[in-house]
From TrEMBL, chain A:
GO terms for biological process: glutaminyl-tRNAGln biosynthesis via transamidation; regulation of translational fidelity; translation. Signal peptide: none annotated. Pfam families: GatC. Its EC number is 6.3.5.-. It catalyses: L-glutamyl-tRNA(Gln) + L-glutamine + ATP + H2O = L-glutaminyl-tRNA(Gln) + L-glutamate + ADP + phosphate + H(+); L-aspartyl-tRNA(Asn) + L-glutamine + ATP + H2O = L-asparaginyl-tRNA(Asn) + L-glutamate + ADP + phosphate + 2 H(+). Belongs to the GatC family. Keywords: ATP-binding, Ligase, Nucleotide-binding, Protein biosynthesis. The keyword Nucleotide-binding applies. This is Aspartyl/glutamyl-tRNA(Asn/Gln) amidotransferase subunit C. It comes from Iocasia fonsfrigidae. One of its GO terms (molecular function) is glutaminyl-tRNA synthase (glutamine-hydrolyzing) activity. It comes from the Bacteria. Allows the formation of correctly charged Asn-tRNA(Asn) or Gln-tRNA(Gln) through the transamidation of misacylated Asp-tRNA(Asn) or Glu-tRNA(Gln) in organisms which lack either or both of asparaginyl-tRNA or glutaminyl-tRNA synthetases. The reaction takes place in the presence of glutamine and ATP through an activated phospho-Asp-tRNA(Asn) or phospho-Glu-tRNA(Gln).
From TrEMBL, chain B:
It catalyses: L-glutamyl-tRNA(Gln) + L-glutamine + ATP + H2O = L-glutaminyl-tRNA(Gln) + L-glutamate + ADP + phosphate + H(+). It comes from Iocasia fonsfrigidae. This is Glutamyl-tRNA(Gln) amidotransferase subunit A. The active site is at 71 (charge relay system), 146 (charge relay system), 170 (acyl-ester intermediate). Residues 24-458 form the Amidase domain. Belongs to the amidase family. GatA subfamily. HAMAP family: GatA.
Amino acid sequence: MISKKDVEYIANLANLKVDEADKDVFAKQLGDILEYVEKLNELDTDGVVPTAYTVPMKNVFREDKAEPSIERDKALANAPDKKDGQFRVPPIISE
Amino acid sequence: MELYDLTIHELKERLVDQEISVTEVLNTFYERIDQVDDSVRAYVSLTRDEAYQRAGEDLTGSLAGIPLAIKDNMSTEGIKTTCSSNILNNYRPPYDATVVKKLKEAGAIMLGKANMDEFAMGSSTENSGFFKTHNPWNLDHAPGGSSGGSAAAVAAGEAAGALGSDTGGSIRQPAAYCGVVGLKPTYGNVSRYGLVAFASSLDQIGPITKDVKDSAILLNAITGHDPMDSTSVKIDKPDYTEFIKEDVKGLKIGLPEEYFSLEINSEVKESVLTAVKKMEEAGAIVEEVSLPSAEYALAAYYIIAPAEASSNLARYDGVRYGFRSEQASNVSEMFTTTRNQGFGDEVKRRIMLGTYVLSSGYYDAYYLKAQKVRTLIKEDFDKLFKEYDLLISPTTPTTAFKLGEMSDPLEMYQMDIFTVPINIAGIPAISLPSGFDSAGLPIGLQIMGPHFGEGKILQAAYTLEQLLNIKDKRAKVEVSK
């Protein structure tokens, strides 16, 4: 049901790299799970309103007031690489 | 009974009466940890220095001086919070989760951070990115998951109580396997601010304790509206300890036939039905009921949870925090190699599953369908709770399986068949021990209630706990050299 090619496609969408040896395993496992969830089609859900949250919830807004955000040093404290108060990453456009 | 075997309320009494000092309590628990954690492996990190520093402070509040374990997916300021994942192995949050803040205000002391399945994905704590936790009742068996470290810590006397998180049963299932009490509160009753998100519409933090009274005490400390969490519900906060009384007279209890007709271990079934019989003798009215859509809950869960996880876990890219792969010549390669090296297989599997069901052309067939089924499941529960106060089932179909025994993910997912519907419907449920199987492993019984029905659940659980009279039974951890 899920091919190796599907796995490559999904992994790409999810920013994941799947090792060649694992592709077949993932294809089989994802296929099995998707086959299992087919079970839902036994239920008629025509006209049923979908539920995202199970407790009543309206728009939740805080007061529209500017507040200080997290300090820069604290925000950068966990960065694997930083320079001049900024996060540093490898080149976005390389040769 | 040793000091580390005491419940929170028993420890509290001794601390208040000044029979013991906070430092003595800490000494006892850390000695116990030093003695057994090489075998149990409940903790990913210990916060000894911070704990002793706290012990020197003038602690006040309902949990003054009480030592607790915190699952490692709750943010602790300046203290490593890893989600048992290599991608976060060095992450020190700049703030405390609301529950952690509340526990501090109540005077509790954190002993350390508890092991878990990576990003709370799993039912055995074998999926931890670091090491497996063992069941204190029998070290060859799994403690359950994903809050396996929290449950094992409490069961082994390595903490007076603990916090876990429950997305599809991750508090109740390990509580059942480890013979302790685990409560998943109503969705929105406990703030999720600072809980590292797995599936946002299902996750809920709750207590894991030695007895039901402790569960009420911890719940009191962590509930309440939080403006930092937009899904936190504004309601009047009851004193849950007021429900700790023996009384089930006239209480209407439903036994969902779909739960009992499934293939479940006969010892588990018998233990639960015997417990229910005792409640009936104590005055409860017990009837068989039907929950037809419950059998679809697991399928809906395995669409909703991975879908939300794939979105929540998109933030781990190695830029702002966590592990970053050095093997990349450009930024795009850095994202993929970081995620490939940082995440374990179960996490990758769920991210891919979630990405697939949300991808173009499949959204309606999977995600929307699952959200509609969710409506049907919720309506089924709502209908039953109009007529019944509570529902009872086993927590899990079997007792704790052996470590390494479950190799097929789909088979492992079946362990959550009784717990998942509760998260799908957003209702509260508790697991408490109802007995032991012939191998001496604990059996868990689950009591479910309507939204914000925690009080009634606790009252029924407390009554049952007194009737069963096994609450003082503790795991005898085999200490390996």
